């Protein structure tokens, strides 16, 4: 961002006006942002205040896709968060003889680098553009910098990691904690891969999209980041999270002791917050913390019983976290030629920085020690929950949607135009992320949808045949995506493609081809066909990191698997025997299968399924839906005879069914379930292939990349109960 005039008296008032120096009322007139340097419209219109911090104020803004502003990325969604430098901060920088135009420079460069790879990491907030706007504040017009970033809608569960953890009355369970921390680590690794040290990782700077059982954490606020290629430094930190070496930083001087290990310290404190439900450091008066001592999770406010029940494992977790936040820096930190002159200052500031075990040198080293322990905790807790017949993890509550008083269900349906020149895709070849973005495969081509806009993904020529031979597209292990065929798993992560090793037995025994995948986003897994070595049925193989497969779970279905759905009490497996008769089993987390026979085996194949927050689950075949409650099977009324292609839960837990031509949602009428049609297509229109949900409604994709967006009349219950602010600084 080049330097601009600090302020000017306006001969003509700009469209943006504020009554206070924090700009909190800037959106009151829903004015459009005009780029000050060119006097051209940006296509962004302010809608409402999201939050106000020390230097910046953030607003929800609407992007007009009819105005193709050169200041915004083609990837810009309809809703974005726009961060403005406050007028008070602008004046402060001018008094200090500093250029306010540089305030957002680190964030612009850092997040801009993250967006260069397509699809970008879902674990770092998206960046869509920046500029300057002339803002009249108390009669003085200032040219204030702004930047547009991803608006993270947390729905009813809250938009930040702080919100989510504080709302967990009994602590974050091991399964959920593992999922959250995998995402946080993935975001930090992605930043470091682009030469970006965040320097201010903390729960308020981790935004979260999706319901509690399918959360996507997103690292935000790179305002004080160390970015390769940028010399200037901002001396700032959050003492309860930042590494103590940051306290030696000076303005405009690059502190050589700051490196990847600095973010490791903050990540350890973030992990402690997730597991313990409170800050690790007790505040400025925490003398033990300030002396380098790190207390055990056993002293935390809200540690989940799943961790407390494993004291030996909790002690191992304590040890890894303590090393992650160790005051002593790793040896690599002292390799810089200028580091030696900082040693006396650090020794005087914190004597413990000169003794004890050294901190992990990289996020990857810390991750590789911590996540296996959390995996063990998750497995142990799931098994215990299965034995005790209790929910293993937090799950969105399933809502009983009562029947409308009269007529068809009320909703708004907006048709979406198809992509141009694409080969038709099929069910299984589209995957939805909790933030609303979609990846779809059309032959050997990939398109990434932001809102309804398709963006082509560059696929290397040597990868195209493998992509074209894929039958399924899913969310990947630990992030990204996976394209899967009978004999391959192709990972798509940060714009790079790589093959994942197929499952293998230690003794080299036979493994069947992949016949189905887990596509609900909570678990990454594939199901291989039964072989002589399978010991009784198809096998479910799962992976959390894309390199290792857990030991297989035998699925004694008595047929071929079509779909698997995970819930808090276990998972439902549906399919068919010989392609003619339905089969279904429920497998608890104690891995004891329950065969569902009566009312199932005499029906046509089950092709889709979904689990609720309770013990109820549903499976669908052509023209029918079955409700399962462990050993009980009931048929429910369904107002369509089409072939099912997908089922899913919306953000408030109501199940939906998509067939080739219809979209239905479950209602409760006279105590029984009925699947009522919300949208229907004619036989000449492209058939549907998948569905996803955001707090704005349901997005249904058809085989040509078009489809429909459905907004039910109860959509207000999908959105946040309170306006949780986006991250500010």
Structure description:
Helix 4 runs antiparallel to helix 10, helix 5 (260-276) packs antiparallel against helix 8 (311-324) and helix 8 (311-324) packs antiparallel against helix 10. The protein has 729 residues and is α+β, with helices and mostly antiparallel strands. A hairpin with a 4-residue loop joins strand 28 (581-588) and strand 29 (593-595). The protein folds into 3 domains: 7-150, 2-Layer Sandwich (Phosphorylase Kinase, domain 1), CATH 3.30.200.20; 155-379, Transferase(Phosphotransferase) domain 1 (Transferase(Phosphotransferase), domain 1, Orthogonal Bundle); 411-713, 7 Propeller (Methylamine Dehydrogenase, Chain H), CATH 2.130.10. Strands 1, 2, 3, 4, 5, 6, 7 and 8 form an 8-stranded mixed beta sheet that branches. Strands 30-31-32-33-37-36-35-34 form an 8-stranded mixed beta sheet, with no helix packed on it. A 4-stranded antiparallel beta sheet has the order 13-40-39-38, with no helix packed on it. It is built from 11 helices and 40 strands. 53% of the residues are buried. The model is unreliable at 1-11 (pLDDT under 50).
Helix-strand blueprint:
Elements: E1 7-8, E2 16-18, E3 32-35, E4 40-52, E5 56-63, E6 79-85, H1 87-95, H2 105-114, E7 127-137, E8 140-150, H3 161-166, H4 174-193, E9 196-197, E10 206-209, E11 216-219, E12 226-227, H5 260-276, H6 287-290, H7 305-308, H8 311-324, H9 343-349, H10 363-388, E13 411-416, E14 430-432, E15 438-442, E16 445-450, E17 453-457, H11 464-468, E18 472-475, E19 481-485, E20 488-493, E21 496-499, E22 514-518, E23 525-528, E24 539-542, E25 553-554, E26 560-567, E27 570-577, E28 581-588, E29 593-595, E30 608-611, E31 616-621, E32 624-629, E33 632-638, E34 644-649, E35 655-659, E36 662-669, E37 672-680, E38 688-694, E39 697-702, E40 707-712
Parallel strand pairs: 2-7, 33-37
Antiparallel strand pairs: 1-8, 3-4, 4-5, 5-6, 6-8, 7-8, 9-12, 10-11, 13-40, 14-15, 15-16, 16-17, 18-19, 19-20, 20-21, 22-23, 23-24, 24-25, 26-27, 27-28, 28-29, 30-31, 31-32, 32-33, 34-35, 35-36, 36-37, 38-39, 39-40
């Amino acid at each position: 961002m080049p330097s601009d005039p600090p302020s000017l008296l306006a001969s003509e008032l700009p469209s943006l006006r504020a009554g206070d120096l924090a700009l909190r009322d800037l959106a009151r007139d829903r004015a459009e942002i005009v780029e000050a340097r060119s006097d051209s419209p940006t296509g962004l219109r302010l809608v409402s205040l999201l939050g106000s911090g020390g230097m910046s104020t953030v607003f929800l803004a609407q992007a007009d896709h009819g105005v193709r502003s050169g200041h915004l990325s083609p990837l810009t969604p309809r809703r974005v968060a726009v961060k403005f430098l406050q007028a008070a901060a602008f004046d402060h920088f001018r008094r200090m003889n500093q250029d306010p135009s540089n305030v957002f420079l680190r964030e612009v460069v850092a997040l801009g680098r993250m967006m260069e790879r397509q699809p970008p990491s879902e674990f770092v907030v998206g960046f869509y553009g920046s500029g300057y706007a002339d803002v009249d504040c108390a009669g003085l017009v200032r040219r204030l910098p702004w930047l547009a970033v991803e608006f993270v809608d947390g729905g009813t569960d809250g938009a930040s990691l702080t919100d989510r953890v504080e709302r967990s009355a009994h602590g974050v369970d091991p399964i959920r904690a593992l999922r959250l921390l995998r995402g946080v680590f993935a975001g930090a690794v992605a930043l470091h891969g682009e030469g970006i040290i965040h320097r201010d990782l903390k729960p308020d700077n981790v935004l979260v999209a999706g319901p509690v059982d399918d959360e996507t954490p997103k690292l935000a606020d790179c305002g004080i980041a160390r970015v390769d290629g940028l010399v200037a430094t901002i001396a700032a930190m959050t003492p309860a999270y930042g590494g103590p070496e940051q306290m030696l930083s000076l303005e405009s001087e690059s502190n050589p002791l700051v490196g990847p290990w600095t973010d490791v310290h903050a990540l350890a404190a973030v992990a402690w917050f997730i597991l313990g439900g409170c800050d690790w450091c007790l505040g400025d008066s925490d003398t033990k913390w300030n002396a380098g001592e790190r207390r055990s999770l056993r002293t935390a406010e809200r540690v989940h019983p799943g961790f407390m029940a494993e004291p030996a494992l909790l002690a191992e977790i304590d040890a890894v976290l303590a090393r992650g936040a160790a005051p002593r820096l790793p040896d690599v930190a002292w390799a810089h030629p200028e580091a030696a002159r900082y040693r006396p200052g650090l020794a005087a500031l914190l004597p413990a920085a000169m003794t004890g075990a050294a901190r992990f040198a990289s996020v990857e080293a810390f991750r590789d020690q911590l996540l296996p322990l959390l995996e063990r905790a998750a497995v142990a807790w799931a098994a215990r929950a299965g034995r005790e017949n209790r929910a293993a993890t937090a799950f969105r509550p399933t809502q009983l949607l009562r029947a409308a008083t009269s007529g068809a269900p009320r909703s708004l349906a907006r048709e979406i135009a198809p992509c141009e020149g694409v080969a038709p895709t099929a069910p299984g070849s589209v995957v939805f992320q909790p933030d609303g973005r979609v990846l779809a495969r059309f032959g050997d081509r990939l398109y990434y949808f932001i809102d309804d806009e398709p963006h082509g993904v560059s696929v290397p020529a040597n990868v195209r045949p493998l992509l074209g031979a894929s039958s399924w597209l899913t969310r990947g292990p630990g992030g990204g995506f996976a394209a899967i065929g009978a004999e391959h798993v192709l990972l798509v992560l940060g714009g790079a493609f790589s093959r994942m090793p197929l499952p293998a037995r230690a003794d080299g025994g036979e493994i069947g081809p992949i016949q189905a995948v887990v596509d609900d986003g909570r678990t990454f897994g594939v199901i291989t066909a039964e072989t002589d070595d399978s010991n009784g049925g198809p096998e479910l193989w799962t992976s959390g990191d894309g390199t290792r497969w857990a030991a297989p779970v035998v699925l004694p279905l008595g047929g071929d698997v079509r779909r698997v759905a995970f819930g808090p009490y276990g998972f439902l497996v549906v399919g068919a025997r010989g392609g003619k008769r339905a089969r279904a089993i429920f497998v608890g987390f104690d891995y004891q299968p329950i065969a569902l026979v009566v009312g199932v085996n005499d029906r046509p194949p089950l092709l889709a399924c979904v689990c609720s927050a309770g013990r109820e689950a549903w499976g669908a075949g052509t023209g029918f839906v079955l409700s399962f409650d462990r050993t009980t099977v009931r048929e429910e009324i369904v107002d369509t005879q089409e072939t099912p292609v997908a089922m899913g839960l919306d953000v408030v837990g109501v199940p939906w069914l998509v067939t080739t031509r219809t979209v239905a949602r479950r209602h409760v009428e006279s105590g029984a379930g009925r699947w009522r049609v919300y949208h229907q297509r004619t036989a000449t229109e492209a058939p549907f292939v998948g569905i996803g949900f955001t707090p704005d409604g349901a997005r249904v994709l058809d085989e040509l990349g078009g489809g429909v967006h459905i907004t039910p009349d109860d959509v207000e219950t999908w959105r946040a109960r309170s306006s949780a602010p986006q991250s500010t600084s």
